[in-house]
Amino acid sequence: MCQVKANIIKAEFDVHANEYENELNRWLNQRFGTSKTYVNRAKAQELITLLKLNKDSNALGKLLCLDVGCGTGAIASYLCQNNIKTIGVDLSYHMIQSGQKCAPNQAQCIVSPSTRLPFESGFFDCCYTVCLFHHLSEPDQIKTLREMKRVTKRGGLVTIFEHNPYNPVSQLIVKLSPLDKNVRLLTKSKVNQLFSETGIQTVLQKYILFFPEFMSKLNYLETYMNQWPMGCQYLVAGRA
């Protein structure tokens, strides 16, 4: 990773680490009637569904996943609570420590740059990242995705979640977030291009998070809406 860029990202997240989850939850509740917990659980459930489609449901407890850019480790912890062993890596030691204070003895998280993952090739059944790529330079996006593919078993899942730049709420969230200054959001087609450039075969792509928490009773409609580019976020999943 470009050292200057990496140091800037690390410093930004270190500054906000202690109050990150609480501040973000309060801010999302006040402005959009939703919470970080709701959003994280939705993405964790998407991952669980993907893993069930890719593997026998009875085998989920034998899987090992990697969360790249895990932050406080919230999503990795949700997977662990569902008997899916998950390890997280993040550039910010303070973000990891903040998460461990909130949910000790959940996911194991270690400090590492996304461009040099400290694991053997083919170590994980699934490797995913959540809203990390818009913080990376284009060269580091390629390097990170190559590393994610390298540490994933052949045929295993590589998944990217990102903000949808076509959604006005996502645009506002990113614009007002102190952690997202000067970032450039990626379109779903851009992520597909990155997959193609790194030899990852796309198997699923969809938009998610159409409804805030107070409208969650309508979530069943997402099945019929997931190709409509107005969900707050999207995912692209492929096979290594």
TrEMBL record:
Gene3D superfamilies named among the record's database cross-references: Vaccinia Virus protein VP39
Segment forming the signal sequence: none
Domain Methyltransferase type: 66-159
InterPro entries xrefs: Methyltransf_11, Methyltransf_Superfamily, SAM-dependent_MTases_sf
Gene Ontology MF terms: S-adenosylmethionine-dependent methyltransferase activity
Protein's UniProt name: Methyltransferase type 11 domain-containing protein
